[in-house]
Amino acid sequence: MSIDLQRLVRPNVRTLKPYQSARDTIQSGVLLDANENPFPVLKDGIELNRYPDPNQARLRQALADYTGLEPSNILAGAGSDEVLDWIFKVFLQPGQDLAAILEPTYGMYQVQADIMGVGTVALPLHGDDFSFSSPQFLKDVPEDAKVAFLCSPNNPTGNLLEADEILKLCRDWGKIVVLDEAYVEFAEKPSMASWVSQHPNLVILRTLSKAFGRAAIRLGYALASPPVIEYFRKVKAPYNLNALAQRQGVLALEDGPQRLAEILSERRRLRQALHEIPAVKRIFPSQCNFLLFRVAGASRLCLKLLERGVVVRDRSSMLGLADTIRVSIGRPQENDLFLKEFRRLVAPQESPLRQSAPDGRTT
Ligand code: PMP
Predict the structure, then answer these.
(1) In angstroms, rounded to a whole number, what is the distance separating the alpha carbons of residues 61 and 71?
(2) 198-227 confidence digits (pLDDT tens)
(3) Which of 81, 112, 191 to mutate to test the pocket of ligand 1 (most atoms within 8 A of CB)?
(4) Measuring from atom 8 of ligand 1, which residue has the nearest CA?
């Protein structure tokens, strides 16, 4: 199916004349055009008195080198949460279009829709492996839906969605397919980034918050066809990414993902340890830096863990996830502490009889 991208863009954005910022084209010379303070405030070689590069040129080149795409396929925001904001602004008309969300998944898609006044339709992932089927989606999705939000590997279920199904959707649906790959560096399968050159309706979300260990700098990015990136440029705030974050982003990409092997080995160890606890009913396969598991009384257990200073996420209220806890993979000592406190909470109470049966039997 051919994609008429223009038709998918909100009419006001199609005709929008974006703000022309002082640093759009000219970044050197005698800069008397932006009402900046002319006296240098230097920190780590960055002139903090100047506005940052609105085109993110160095950062986008570094992201291009990392992803194998072109800078024209890339735009960075203050976390991938900002990229979500652009997606809504460009494609989803409040009170008219719908966002289709494949549930259970990351809560920000719904929150962003609520902020923008855009209606949503929740379509369930399938079976107990939370898989995605494009034909099923096409059967269930209402006509008014214009953007689908898929997350692979998915938070909080941890599984990858089938790449072929996602590509089928891009090919057969004719609307916008958002694929959130926040956790892809932890997965066994590669990113689907290279497909954006063949599918102008595919928008991939990535972030430096997870594998690169840079959650604090707030840097996420969109990978998409150049026309989609151009629409994002139109709606983003001119200087959306501060100079420190842009510089730190380039350095992060030079450093590469942080302690990936260690995190994956801790994921295996934590999984095995949970497996040996009888109260744990199911540990969901994970391609992420967390584990989701099922245990009776999950909500109460989360509160008890919190009292003991261990903070995990109760996911029990999500579609199909009754009695589940999501635990991030921490450092080895943190994982040990979690396991110790969790075991204490779920171990059967020793009964006094057991300890003191007169004939020495244990009961
Ligand atoms: N996508 C998913 C699936 C996430 O789980 C998260 C954070 N928990 C994000 C995006 C947000 O990433 P960022 O820090 O880049 O805003």
Answers:
(1) 6
(2) 999 999 999 999 999 999 999 999 999 999
(3) 81
(4) 106
